[in-house]
Amino acid sequence: MKEKDLTFEDKLWKAADKLRKKVEVHEYKYIVLGLIFLRYVSFAFEEVKEKLKKEYRNNPKLEKILEDKDYYLSEGTLYVPEEARWDYIAKNANKPNITEIIDNAIELLEKEYPKQLKDVIPKVYTKANLDYHDLTYLINLFSQITFDKDYKSKDIFGRIYEYFLGKFTESEGKKGGEFYTPRSLTKLIVEVLDVKGNRIFDPSCGSGGFFVAALEKLEREGIEKDNLSIYGQESKEFVWKMCKMNLAIRGVEGDIRWGDSYHDDKFLDLRADYIVSNPPFNDSNWGRDRVKDTDPRFKYGIPPENNANYVWIQHYIYHLSPRGKAGFVMANGALSVGGIEGEIRKKIIEDDLIYAIAATPPKMFYTVSLPASLWFLRKNKPEHMKGKVLFIYAKKLFKPISRRQNIFTDEHIAIIVEKFRMFERGESEEKINEVGFCKIATIEEIAKNGYVLTPGRYVGIKIDEEDEPFEEKMKRYSEEYSKLLKEEEKLNYKIKEVFKALGWEI
User: Fold this and answer.
1) Parallel, antiparallel, or unpaired: how do β-strands 406-407 and 228-234 relate?
2) Nearest Cα to Cα of residue 29 among 283, 205, 241
3) Distances (CA, A) of 61 to 65, 199, 280
């Protein structure tokens, strides 16, 4: 399957969606994704089992080897007990007690892998408003998933899994970028940070896309996945479960906790080597009044209630280890906004924590056309990078895969990453700078530009209309106008009071 309109996954969605009229979305998504999970782990298990059969075909202990779960874990998949295997479920799909069979399959997996799966896959099948005919339909549907010999099964299944997750967020009317980060962005950030091992942390981890991208990079480079310690926090219970499942299908453990990063930091003492994230954009009503002045995260100031962008940015800085690097997606407004946020940005720039900003094309997110930027931070820059920021204008580097979505190809990612490597190696600015695409700017230059971090301003793009989309501008203007009206009302009241004190009524 190539990167294009997701016709294969779309057919699965449309078929499964026929049953949604019987159950609410919040319940239906657990039913469908639970079945996809069971199908996925069984397929991966059977794949490794066949491999073991070939490798140990002459070994008298073959039967014992085939049931040894350590062999499967070493291959990056889970051992699946017999009554939890998809073949067993499919064989019994027509039985009236199929709901009990599925719930039992989940319990068996929980017992095998309590750390990864305890209370993660919801046992909802016996309680759901679906009869066994409905479940038989879904089981037969997912049994029909076939694989082209030219594609790795895990990639296909991963895409099905992620596509369904994206569809559920879309059907519930939420921003797709809220907890579903496009693969080309996660891959680019992980490549730029050059994740090798040690501690990786995402305090808004969604379904775990950054962790998957990091694990895939390790696999490509022949690095043991156990070298990577994974930490994540997610505020939505459903999505937290998805992240746990997403790691489990790859045979990986991670410390993923459910909680609100704004007010309940589950990893207060963690200092990570890599921080990766795609937080909610422009999150308002985030709970500023619940934050104490002594909160150690807000060294540069507490951001306003109407926008949490700089809550996240300071959260990342706080959790970086002394030699740590951060790469994250951020709404474009954070590049140039004024007020309290502008002051916070100025202090962060003056403390020399930003080492690169990249502008991305619009339509990178499946369900939102909002353009975004990528920020890269370091606690301690190498000597030759101190006082400098790399700006990349990558808005023209994209490939449309549908009318609604653009991606970075591997070639685009390689072009961008090479500029970072040149900067890190200390190559001359003459080699790195490229009009209209790339420029190294000093903090002094940034200060002259009012501490604005819009890449187009530095690389030679005079007019960059996409830096702040219309919706974002209007939201900001309306908030500013509302604030001015309130100030005008207060001022008018004070003037009236002054006149009244002088004996004049207005």
Assistant:
1) unpaired
2) 241
3) 6, 38, 52
Give the closest residue to 144 by CA, choosing from 248, 45, 35: 35
| Dihedrals phi, psi of 263, to nearest 5 degrees | -125, -5
Neighbours of 310 (CB within 10 A): 24
pLDDT, one tens digit per residue, over 336-357 is 999 999 999 999 999 999 999 9
Query: For residues 209 and 70, what is the distance between their CA atoms, to the nearest angstrom?
Result: 26
Q: Which domain holds residue 246?
A: 176-377+396-426+447-467
Nearest CA-CA partner of 225 in 212, 215, 217, 237: 215
pLDDT above 80 (res 223): yes
Of 209, 212, 229, the C-alpha closest to 220 is 212
Are residues 325 and 408 part of one domain? yes
> Quick one: tokens of 317?
């800085």
Same domain, 291 and 269: yes
The answer to whether 24 and 130 are in contact (CB under 8 A) is: no
Contacts of 304 (CB under 8 A, 6+ apart): 288, 339, 340, 341
Q: Write down the pTM of the prediction.
A: 0.83
Which residues touch 152 (CB under 8 Å, ≥6 apart)? none
Note whether 75 and 193 are same-domain residues: no
Residue 31, by phi and psi: left (phi above 0), alpha (psi -120 to 50) or beta?
alpha
Please count the structural domains in the chain: 3
DSSP code, position 177: G
Domain with residue 131: its CATH number is 1.20.1260.30
Q: Which amino acid is at 225?
A: K
Q: Where are the alpha helices (DSSP H) in 281-394?
A: 309-319, 339-350
* Whether residues 159 and 278 fall in one domain: no
The answer to whether residues 3 and 9 touch, using CB atoms and an 8 Å cutoff, is no
Could you tell me if 162 and 209 are in contact, meaning their C-beta atoms sit under 8 angstroms apart? Answer: yes
Q: Locate 467 and state its tokens.
A: 């830096």
Q: What is the pLDDT of residue 29?
A: 79
Q: For residue range 120-143, what is the model confidence (pLDDT) as tens digits? A: 988 889 988 888 888 898 898 888
Q: In this structure, what token pair is assigned to residue 318? A: 């706080």
Q: Is the dihedral of CA 298, 301, 305, 311 positive or negative?
A: negative
Question: How far is it, in rounded angstroms, from Cα 38 to Cα 46?
Answer: 12
Q: Calculate mean pLDDT across residues 177-205.
A: 88
| Helices 153-171 and 25-55, axial angle in degrees (round to 10) | 180
The gap from C-alpha 122 to its chain's centroid, in whole angstroms, comes to: 22
- The rounded distance, in Å, linking the Cα atoms of 402 and 9 is 14
> Which DSSP string do the residues of 34-96 spell out, in sequence order?
HHHHHHHHHHHHHHHHHHHHHHTTT-TTHHHHHT-HHHHHHTTS----GGGSHHHHHHTTTST
